[in-house]
Specification:
The protein has one domain (3-109). The chain is built from 7 helices and 2 strands. The protein has helices at 3-16, 29-33, 40-57, 62-79, 84-92, 94-107, 109-150; strands at 19-20, 26-27.
Length: 152
């Protein structure tokens, strides 16, 4: 195992699994960083980006890097939601997922590449749908408020 690979594994462990709770469940620094209002999830996202950058340096293809970025964005975006996002940060473990994805790619590059490409397409379609629904929901809420305020 190269120094870069060891570093990725250690950083992932630190962010997602470095603290063992009673009962054996593991959490890491990423969840605690997410508790810092305003910047915690941003800092966690930056640290997660280091893993993706290192994977790029190891030669991971774009489809794998995209999947890793999506995992990180899900973690950072949903983790920013007050209270629910903090719980999500302790459960999602994007860094562990990304290291597992990289390790799986290193062992079976062709199978993982094909699977990841299809997953990326599906996830992008789901994200576009979710963004569309969120925009529609916000528009609906604004129209209700507008109606309540200006049309008596």
């Amino acid at each position: 195992m190269s120094n870069r690979t060891r570093f990725i594994h250690r950083l992932s462990w630190f962010l997602d699994e470095s603290i063992t709770l009673p009962g054996g469940y593991k959490i890491g620094a990423d969840g605690f960083l997410g508790l810092i209002p305003g910047i915690g999830d941003f800092i966690g996202g930056l640290l997660s980006s280091v893993i993706i950058y290192q994977a790029h340096q190891l030669g991971a293809p774009k489809t794998i890097l995209l999947k890793m970025a999506i995992n990180m964005l899900i973690d950072t975006t949903l983790g920013a939601i007050p209270v629910i996002g903090d719980v999500f940060d302790f459960v999602w473990k994007a860094n562990r997922r990304n290291v597992a994805l990289l390790s799986e790619y290193e062992q079976q590059p062709r199978q993982v590449y094909r699977k990841t490409l299809l997953e990326n397409i599906a996830i992008i379609l789901i994200l576009i749908t979710m963004i569309g629904l969120a925009v529609a929901f916000v528009g609906w809420i604004i129209s209700l408020i507008w109606t309540a305020l200006f049309q008596s």
